[in-house]
Amino acid sequence: MPEAEFLFSEVAQYLRSEDVTQLKNAYSFGQGAHSGQYRKSGEPYISHPLAVARILGKLHMDAPTLTAALLHDVVEDTHISKEEISERFGESVAELVDGVSKLEKIKFQTQAEAQAENFRKMLLAMARDVRVILIKLADRLHNMQTLDVMRPEKQRSIARETLEIYAPIAHRLGLNNIYQELQELGFCYSYPLRYRVLVKATKAARGNRREIVGKIQDAIINKLKEAGLDAQVNGREKHIYSIYKKMAEKQLSFSEVLDIYGFRVIVKDAPACYVALGALHGLYRPIPGKFKDYIAIPKANGYQSLHSTLLGPFGIPMEMQIRTREMHRIAENGVASHWLYKSTDANLNDLHMKTNQWLQSLLETLSDSTDSMEFLEHMKIDLFPGDVYVFTPQGKILTLPRRSTAVDFAYAIHSDIGNCCVAAKINGENAPLRSELKSGDRVEIVTAPYAKPNPSWLSYVVTGRARSHIRRFLKTIQYDESVELGERMLNQALLTLNIDPSMINETQWEKLVRDSGAGSKKALLADMALGKQLPAVIAKRLISPLESVKSEQVSSDPITILGTEGLTVQFAKCCHPIPGDVIVGLIKKEHGLIIHAHNCQTITQSQKHSENYLDVAWGKDITRTFEVKIKVIAANKHGVLARIAAAIAKTESNIDDVAMESEKDYTAMSFILQIRNRHHLAQVMRDLRRIKDVAKITRV
After folding, report:
1. Does the pLDDT value for residue 584 go beyond 90?
2. Which CATH number does 2-190 carry?
3. 308, 399, 424, 557: which could join 406 in a potential S-S bond, CB 3.0 to 4.6 Å?
4. What is the C-alpha to C-alpha distance for residues 581 and 263, in angstroms, rounded to an integer?
5. Catalytic hit among 3, 19, 77, 364
6. pLDDT at 347
7. For residue 108, is pLDDT > 50?
8. Which helix (DSSP H) or strand (DSSP E) does residue 616 occupy?
9. CATH superfamily name and code, 386-462
10. Cα–Cα distance between 681 and 163 in angstroms, integer?
11. What homologous superfamily does CATH list for 196-341?
12. Catalytic site residue 76?
């Protein structure tokens, strides 16, 4: 096969002769193992692993990686075992092949669950050896390059998985060429019509501007020569998916998308990058707010470059990327630069340290996640490029995903700091823990020794690390509470069916536990409290032998809510129910029992009549406080906020959060207050109405 000869001649340029011999043996072995197997295109199956090895050969990967690439499907698709590969090609190759292979044919409840478990296994292997994911990415790239033989619905499914998982992993590892090709192919097969329209529009724009772009490139080269710089200048066109994403995110038309064209300037060292930047700013006017310095603050994947968008002739916006040759190598090959170039470079070592930190956080998330779907959820969150750069009090830079909060920051430093955080200071000022961070913020976390994670944090944390640590902590302390609440919920469901709970004997419980696979009675009760099992369904399964001996009159009292149930009962943020409100309970998977006000707009009539609905009522003598949101419209006068805050304090209510929007004459203030009950809320609102400048108060 000619492709095999191309592979051997390409790798012979950097591998030892004995390594090339091993590759030839692996090719012959794989060809024999896949004998008689063909791809959907009709080609012999060996053409696929050969193509995967060639992709990795261009990254100058080592011999074990290329050997494993040639053999990556033999365990999954042939009679060859991992042990046989280990005997013939070594333990290292066998481990790589095993890491890339899918799970054995285990029966999962859903295709999504099987897919998630495959990702879990692959990423666990990747955390031990990053070469696993490099093989998997090359495997996915070749599959995407040959996707046209699949059915349209299969094409869309594979393409979306590529955009959601594989392209972001390639980006996270700094494999720029693979990342961009996966994105382009993923977009092409996910939205074929949109892709064709944008390709046509881009070609038209390119044709109209080709001559202008050539003149601009000449002007840049001459300007850099005048500045005494030896620079390489290349024209660069923005990728179709990148244009589409910008149009979708910012609601722009094609003609409004900036920097469809760009130029890459490569110079000898970092100081020359800044000299080149100054020269180009002298040639064309920079667009304000469109400059990013990734040299001083590199991206999490090690990427370094100066980015500046300039206004060229005829108002054409152009993005300039200025970097050194070393930076360009890392930008193109990322973590694979370790094999492509000598790893004595400080930037490469820093990149590998960051990659190792990310892989370690992956292992933590794997150990904290109870199931594969939960892990995949955390993984997807963490894969999207982080573009918020914040500082610790000591001046260390942390990279976090967009919309990250102070809680995410706390967990990024250490899980113990996250678990014990009670407040934050952002740029020296007190701020709520839910505050979203912006690039450049200096963040300090305040902790208390007896503080614990709050379930409400899960509604606003962004990073998988924070989410998994919070969930793990909550699961350990809420088990007993869950068992107690689950028992109360089941008793109510039994009473609704006119069955006295005391009539259920141990034999029935043992049968139900055995049939459900829960492990124990306590585990089953806890699952009900956490929304994993519906009390009404469990009650019906439990009483089937008792249906002929139903009690005539058994009253079904609502579940009493005291506010002291702990983490198994949560109060909805949409309606902020408080004692005195008529309330309903809804069971939500993984969240447990959520209490809503009866008239809450988010609850539909169908929900109120479903098995997820529970009859609940407030208990007596409730002493704790609850969150309530109110809106105050007041005159836009000096000191009005201080007078309102003082009035709230006099009623023994605390302010948890405040947001303000000012018009010319009036200010709208939204407060989240700590309130005991409806009487307490009425007192607060009465006292606020007495303030002269307050025009209107409403409970949100």
Report:
1. no
2. 1.10.3210.10
3. 424
4. 63
5. 77
6. 54
7. no
8. strand 616-618
9. Beta-grasp domain (3.10.20.30)
10. 49
11. Beta Polymerase, domain 2 (3.30.460.10)
12. yes
First to last CA, the chain: 72
The percentage of the chain sitting over the pLDDT mark of 70, rounded to a whole number, equals 81
Catalytic member of 19, 76, 113, 345: 76
**Long-range CB contacts for residues 468-477, cutoff 8 Å, separation at least 24:** 468/364, 468/365, 468/368, 468/369, 468/374, 468/378, 469/364, 469/368, 469/411, 469/415, 469/418, 469/419, 470/411, 470/418, 471/368, 471/369, 471/374, 472/368, 473/419, 474/567, 475/370, 477/452, 477/566, 477/567
Q: What is the side-by-side order of every strand in the sheet holding 666-675?
A: 654-662, 666-675, 626-635, 694-699
Q: How high is the pLDDT of residue 386?
A: 55
Residue range 205-250, pLDDT digits in tens: 766 666 777 788 889 999 999 999 989 998 877 788 888 887 887 7
Closest by CA to 81, choosing from 48, 104, 50, is 104
Instruction: Locate CATH 3.30.70.260 in the chain.
Output: 626-699
Three-state DSSP string of 325-353:
HHHHHHHHHHHHHHHHCCCCCHHHHHHHH
387 is catalytic: no
Token pair of 430, please? 């007190």
Helix axes 464-496, 372-383, angle to 10 degrees: 140
- Read off φ and ψ for residue 120, nearest 5 degrees: -60, -45
Domain with CATH 3.10.20.30 in the chain: 386-462
Region 626-699: CATH code: 3.30.70.260
pTM over the 0.70 mark: no
Q: Can you read off the two tokens belonging to residue 104?
A: 């054995």
Among 56-70, 293-307, 654-668, the range of highest mean pLDDT: 56-70
What pLDDT score was predicted for residue 125?
Answer: 64
Q: Which residues of the chain are in CATH 3.30.460.10 domains?
A: 196-341
